[in-house]
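Morning F.,

Quick status update on the modeling queue. The single chain you submitted on Monday has been processed. Sequence for confirmation:
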Amino acid sequence: MKPEQNVSTVPPRPSAAKIIPELAFESPMQTWLKSVGLHYNPFEHHDSGSDPNIPFYLVYHPIGNLTVEEHPDFVFAPPGGGKTAFRAWLTFECRTSRKPNRIFPIVFEMPAPTKIQQQVHIGEPPAHLLRSAARELFLYFLYHVEDFEAISLDLRRQILDFWNHWDPIGLRTALNRISNRAGVESLDAMAVSLPNPPGDQSIHRFKELIPSQAKTTTAINRTSAQNSWDWLKNVLFKDLGFSKIFIIIDNVDGYFETGGNPIKGIELLSWFLNSFDALAQEHIHVKFFLPEEMEQMLKAYYPDLLTDRLNFVNITWDVDSLVQIIRQRLQQASWNTYDSLRAISNRDLWGQPASPEERIAQCVIDQKRYNPRDVIRIVHWLFQQHITRPEAGERITPQDLADALDWYRRERATPT
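Structure tokens below.
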């Protein structure tokens, strides 16, 4: 069975990221997806951070229309409101930037709150910043082996010394597993969506170029995070030719201690907030993706940072933008064949004034929820329940959609 054609016209787009799970057998969901022209389930990942295709879901949202250079320093949103999705987009844009304006992204791996006291020294960069930078530098060279080969043996030894000190276990594990995609995913789930992934020959050459030992003629003082940070800046700007560094911060509310506790979150970020202006003078820009409850607290504690309206943005959603969440995922997963649930629905749904995705988005808004995560969860539940019906090989029916919306309303009515 093929989806109906010309149900919704979509503009031509660049080649989609064809990242399809390799399965030893075909599940009922895979069979149904294939029958309706979807190459994977674009609604499977409720958490954007685990979705390798998230950089390609370019939502028609004001922040999505900004260039990397125009991107605000502070982005606020409620849980499920798109912080991680836009963080992933910004990271992808930095990773694929080209000379002479290349930007090196450091996706800061948020430490557990129990380690906050180790992170708050104003004069010393957080250890987790160096660990995150080590992983990004490893990923960069894996995808740009020619740059790793072009630098001197002594500098490669310094880099190995840096990796061994700041992330010895994670990078060694990634290197051992790098012959398959799992090795890249162990560093960053979204890295597999980058263009021109390294092939076997490139990976073999990368391993050959890694020195067998890290003794250098210009050793890094590994006892000092500041010395390592200064060394890293020199390598990125002078040896590799990056024009800027973006430190990208997300998941501040990802722990029990910080969720709903903006003061704890601010304490965790104190080095970045106190160093914000000084870093910018060095062409190092911190990009915060923060829960909305932190906005007023930041304005109280750091009033000088959020005075420029162009410097921060609040992500908000309406019916139209939530509809685009569904349509762009369908367009991507169908490889530009269609972008509406009408294309995989039966005729009883075609004639209704509102499309299925419009009814789903309106249902979420009616429940006073204004975030993409709920929309994604409804469509995923719709798909899962449809394949359990006897007519699973057929198209989505009005009853399927009604059941999905009823399920969501019941869930929202159930106290947590």
